[in-house]
Specification:
alpha+beta, Aminopeptidase, about 200 residues
């Protein structure tokens, strides 16, 4: 005899089925869902939260400031990324209601890789530990969902960023020739291996 399910039970079963199809478990959902909070970084208070579609114009402004007027990612790309809440995590940092930094990441359950897609801090706010803070948040999230590594690409000319990544434990995996759109600069592939004892 079939048991009649309530509307709530049907919704829960559908959600479980959907998550199984796209490869998301409850632990991953919990890690990717993040409430906004205040944080002190080097004696300054900031507001950290999950990026919203309404933040995109300010995110593009940061890209222009960091990349000499260019926007490596456009509004459509960011909109698409921000709608994928089950396997994407984009964070922003605000100071006095100004968006001053952001980071983006994507998680592949198949490879267990948390990939940092982009990270940028307004030039006047650089060298204050903000970028390292954001990277560490993503690394912590990767550990929570039992990722085996955090990976990224960085321009071969961006030695300053490479030093930051190296200080956090990232190691070089080689070079991707002509990786960047536009100027076709090579990218250095880097990864931080997450060992079991750190989870």
């Amino acid at each position: 005899m079939l048991k009649k399910l309530t509307k709530e039970q049907l919704h829960k079963k559908f959600k479980q089925l959907f998550n199984n199809i796209i490869g998301v478990n409850e632990q991953q959902q919990a890690a990717m869902a993040m409430k906004a909070y205040q944080v002190k970084i080097n004696d300054e208070m900031y507001y950290v939260g999950r990026a919203q579609v309404s933040d995109i114009d300010e995110i593009l402004d940061i890209e222009r400031a960091v990349y000499d007027g260019a926007t490596p990612w456009n509004k459509q790309a960011f909109t698409s990324e921000l709608h994928r809440k089950h396997d994407r995590l984009y964070l922003v940092i605000r100071k006095d209601d100004q968006l001053i930094a952001f980071i983006g990441s994507s998680y592949s359950r198949g490879t267990q890789d948390m990939h940092i897609t982009n990270v940028a801090v307004l030039p006047v706010w650089q060298r204050r530990g903000i970028g390292s803070f954001l990277l560490n948040v993503i690394i912590d999230k990767a550990r929570q969902i039992h990722a085996t590594q955090v990976s990224l690409e960085v321009r071969v000319s961006n030695t300053k960023a490479q030093r930051v990544y190296s200080d956090l434990g990232f190691e070089s995996l080689g070079v991707s020739a002509g990786y960047y759109f536009g100027d076709h600069e090579d990218a250095l592939k880097m990864a931080l291996k997450l060992s079991e004892d750190k989870k």
